[in-house]
Amino acid sequence: MSGRGLSFSGTFQVKDAFILALRGSTRGFAKLSRYGDRFATDLEIQCLPLEARRVAPTSLPNGETEALALTVSLDDFCRLAKREGYNPTAIQQLAAMAQARKQSLSSFLWEIDAETGHDLVAYRRRLFTLTKFTSAHYVPHPLQVVGEEYALIFLAPGFEGTGSDQVISVRQQTGIQKVMKTSEAWKRKPNDDQLAYFLSCLLGGVHGINVRDLLTPVREEPTLDRTLREKIELGLQDEEDCFLATTGLSQAKYYQSFAELTLALARSGLRSFLTGDYGSIQ
User: Which of 137, 181, 237, 280 has the least CB density, counted as fewest CB within 10 Å?
Assistant: First the structure.
């Protein structure tokens, strides 16, 4: 959710960037990463089909899971898919099918999801039938953006399956059935890789993305609490510059979707976290 996190994959030509709030989901850490000794983020979905709304940077958070949304070219999306462990060739195949129907990739996948009754397993099996590929790491899933078109999010398959009986999800391989709180993931992986990953998520709060759900459990681990506070303080000033350099957005375009730093820190919960005011984080 941060420039620091995105820069891991190089630079992009982002056409638009904004905050999305997803209804009916819980965020946490669950899947072992391909890139280090750490747990990566995932969602537990309580309500299908997936729906989200664009969030104004001056609005108050309402407890929904918030994320960074990017509008990118197909080539850049293929790079993001590769980062998430999904085959870019499969994305190209799906995009070609969408183009043949004069649809965007996201609307095409939404149509497939609707045809399968918004059933997670049936949707993934349909994707596997179409491309002969699925991933043990993350699979693209469509969501409706209220009042707009559609978007894509990557979900890590759990025990419900990847869409192929021959491809066992990483979460199933490791036995992680439920997403873990920040403190729980830290107890399992109290190392530099996990700390760096937490930081790349939490610095999204510099842009006003609500990260209270990730911050509140940190107080259960005093060492993590102290270290994250120090690291976030150090990363605050560079994050906006890193975000702009990584996304290619102009500062004027950036401020159409995101608030200036003082307001963003208050909205995201980072300001209260940095002052140790956990009562205001919740």
Answer: 237
pLDDT for the residue numbered 237 = 87
Structural contact between residues 19 and 66, judged by C-beta atoms closer than 8 angstroms: yes
Q: List, in order, residues 6 or more apart from 75 with CB less than 8 Å away.
A: none
Report the Cα 258 to chain-centroid distance in Å. 17
Radius of gyration of the chain (CA): 18
What does DSSP say about strands 51-55 and 139-145: parallel, antiparallel, or unpaired? parallel
Q: Which residues of the chain have pLDDT under 70?
A: 282
pTM (predicted TM-score)? 0.95
pLDDT digits 0-9 by tens, 106-115: 999 999 999 9
Look up tokens 């842009």; give the residue.
207
CA distance 250 to 9: 20
d(CA 150, CA 152): 7
Distance in angstroms (rounded) separating the CA atoms of residues 201 and 269: 13
Amino acid at 248: G
Q: At what angle do helices 105-115 and 120-131 cross, to 10 degrees?
A: 120
